[in-house]
Amino acid sequence: MSSNGKERDKQREQNQTSSPPGDSVLEKPLSRRDMLRLAGTGGAGLLLGAAGVGGIMGAFNRAATATVETATASKAADTIEFYGEHQAGIVTPAPDFLLFAAFDLTVSSKEEVRKLFQAWTKASAALAKGQLLGDSNDRLNLPPSDTGEAAGLSPSRTTITFGVGATFFDARFGLSAQRPAALVDMPAFGGDELQEQWTGGDIGVQVNADDMQVAFHAIRSLARIARGKAVLRWTQEGFQRTGKADPAGATPRNLMGFKDGTGNPDAKNTAKMNDIVWVQQGDGEPWMAGGTYMVARRIRIRVEVWDRSTLGDQEATFGRHRDSGAPLGGSKEFEAVDLKKNGENGKPLIPVNSHMALARGDGSIEILRRGYSYSSGMDHRTGQLDAGLMFVCFNRDPRKQFIPMQQKLGQSDRLNEYIVHTGSAMFACFPGVQPGGYIGETLF
Amino acid sequence: MKLKFTALMLASALVFAGCGSNKEAVEPAKNEQPAAAQEIGQDAPKVENWDEITEQYRQFAVEQADSFVIETEKFVKAVKSGDLEGAKKLYAPTRMYFERIEPIAEALGDFDPNIDARENDVEEKDWRGFHRIEKALWENNTTEGMDGYADTLLQDAKLLRALMETVEVEPSLLVTGAVELLNEVSSSKVTGEEERYSHTDLYDFAANVEGAKKIYELLKVELGKQDAELESEIGTSFKNLEEALASYKSGDGYVSYLDLKQEDTKKLSQLLDALAEPLSQMGTILGA
């Protein structure tokens, strides 16, 4: 038995008492807050269309109208366009939160996959604008087409980035010939303790937003649209310090207390991005031109162990000073790194097996990192915190960039004592979509 | 004779309560629509033969209730005669007749708590019905002390059957009932929380799905007229779930929930969600 019956009764009571027949939202005087709420969701347009502009607007004084305009303006600043040459969520600014989800397809034909991608594209464009999904949000006999938890909220710089994994190109959809050579099966790295539950997936979806509720709404909506077509394989939430906590926007710190991303290439540098992130014409599969390869690694930090290591050890592990973020021996975060400089003892100031020294190498290999910290409660076997880094990076060819870099790190990084890689996936991210198109159309 | 009379009085009171709330749930739906939605609704063709469809469903519910009473009599007899193994064998198949028509039982009053409450769903003093007996049979391995509960269970079953005669099935009950049946599976059967002592959850699972399928079959033609794609998506999803469920058959029934691995329950749960989502759109047949 369940409480369904009781809930339904409650519903009935509400239906009977809260809204007498004929008392539609149009006939109720709208408060300023209602109006703002509706303006934020696209509801105002619908209402205005139905009732006539004069009828509604006449009810508002100038001040209220001005506020609506302000709200609309700030909405634009909070919006990252979904459509474009490249997918959003790669070189666009990194919002406060991450919600990563991997899906496995349950359909058996390419046509069904195409339909899903078309539906996801339409929804994603609306989600990026902070609009309600679907057109049946006010019919009492149907579940609302939008789940509603983001109604009236800012678009919160929502981005949704799609990619497909190696398994997408198995025999099911007849696409094996189009599998890009660069989308290799990832080799085993030192320090890997990969768990099935955090690994792989036919499709990877990265959702970012400045608000976790807005991000959740996006991933939930995509999962709902996918029901009967694809199932969730794994999800991971991530966070960084919020814009509110750090208005200046300094380099974020990871959960080990160190600035993370100081050496990241400048995402605004188009030439650089073309060089290290975007797949170029002639790089291989033509359908990938303008796309990129996304690597997602769930890296658990052995928080308790790290907390009892000395500051000296910690700094030698990263190769940087914790406080300033400057390379060891230096004083400024962004000062030039000289890996050859020796200390008084004749040894390099920055240990050769420090994380920075290994990741940097001779500077010839670069990737664009876009990681977020994660906290997934606790490990009930040990009673320790399950926290770490949801590492996400983008690169033009993982065989030449991420994989050799990680092989080196996996073998000798001092950091390995304090971390363990528990999940791993790689996805080929489609090029951008123009209005009317859909994600993956170059492949179909 | 006196008991029968009381039951009838109670029955008619419940029928009134049941119908009243059903109607009221539908009426405001017509009145409250914002203008834009009403236009959409008016475009959709109306179902002409609702009376026929709801009457067919009522007949189905009556048949199930008839069998439910007959099988419950057998089960009760086994319990009262101390036939532990016989009672255990009859327990799950008997419940299936109830599980198929659970939304109607819920709409008719307190049948769900009286017949189907699990321990702690209701206060200890009020706890009766199948699961009270289930606990005795499997946890304590005895039929002792269950005579009274067995008698009450049979009375409840008969009362439910009596009420079926007069129940008025609203179209909205059909539509929401189908989804509710699947929600029942989703919230307690697929997790093994329904039959915590006997672990016969898959029997309930199958019966709930059969109950929802019956409703879909009755609405299928009309639904196909309005949204052929939705109709076919629901049909395929039923087929996928039924196929998966069939692989857990054992003899006339189903394997124990304890035999299911996490992959099994996950697969069943995902197939169920895949069915319930399009099924929840069936309300489109009701118009706005």
Description:
The complex is a heterodimer of chains A (444) and B (288). In chain A, a hairpin with a 4-residue loop joins β7 and β8 (384-395). Chain A has helices at residues 4-17, 32-41, 43-51, 53-57, 62-77, 110-128, 212-226, 270-276, 303-307, 311-318, 355-360, 402-412, and strands spanning 97-105, 159-164, 203-209, 230-239, 292-301, 368-369, 372-379, 384-395, 419-429. Chain A has 2 domains: 25-77, no CATH class; 97-429, no CATH class. In chain A, strands 1, 2, 3, 4, 5, 6, 7, 8 and 9 form a 9-stranded antiparallel beta sheet that branches. By secondary structure, chain A is α+β, with helices and mostly antiparallel strands. Chain A has 12 helices and 9 strands. Helices cover 28% and strands 17% of the residues of chain A. Chain B is an all-alpha fold and 288 residues long. Chain B folds into 2 domains: 47-169, A middle domain of Talin 1; 170-288, Up-down Bundle (A middle domain of Talin 1). Helices cover 73% and strands 1% of the residues of chain B. Chain B has helices at residues 2-31, 35-43, 50-80, 84-100, 102-107, 111-116, 130-139, 147-164, 171-189, 201-226, 228-246, 262-279; strands at 249-250, 253-254. A two-stranded antiparallel sheet of chain B has the order 1-2. Chain B is globular. Chain B starts with a helix and ends in a 9-residue tail after the last helix. The interface between A and B is large, with 36 and 47 residues.
